[in-house]
Design a protein that fits this description.
5 strands; about 40% helix; alpha+beta; 2 helices
């Protein structure tokens, strides 16, 4: 049974920023494609959360590559999936915080 998904404020902000950038520079078709990719990936994560690699064992953070430019970071808890960030890989990796 799929687990409920909770978005952190940072992940909501990341998602909005990415969608705004895509709309401004690439148009509605690309925005819709990114929304579908993200939705499909989150659906897979909620059904099978351990399918993506663990990148931080202490914090139990996993990584799902959405596109070559964007990665979704999440944590699997007993009750739910917590979306931590949707990070633009072209940014400085030192800026990635959870």
């Amino acid at each position: 049974m799929p687990k409920p998904v909770n978005w952190s404020p940072l992940s909501e902000n990341d998602f909005s920023t990415i969608l705004e950038y895509l709309k401004e520079n690439w148009g509605d078709k690309i925005v819709q494609g990114f929304i579908e990719i993200t939705s499909s990936s989150i659906s897979q994560i909620s059904t099978n959360p351990k399918q993506y690699p663990l990148i931080n064992k202490n914090k139990k953070i996993r990584k799902c590559v959405l596109t070559k430019h964007n990665t979704l970071y999440y944590r699997d808890s007993k009750e739910s999936i917590d979306i931590l960030r949707i990070y633009d890989n072209r940014q400085d990796p030192q800026k990635l915080t959870f």
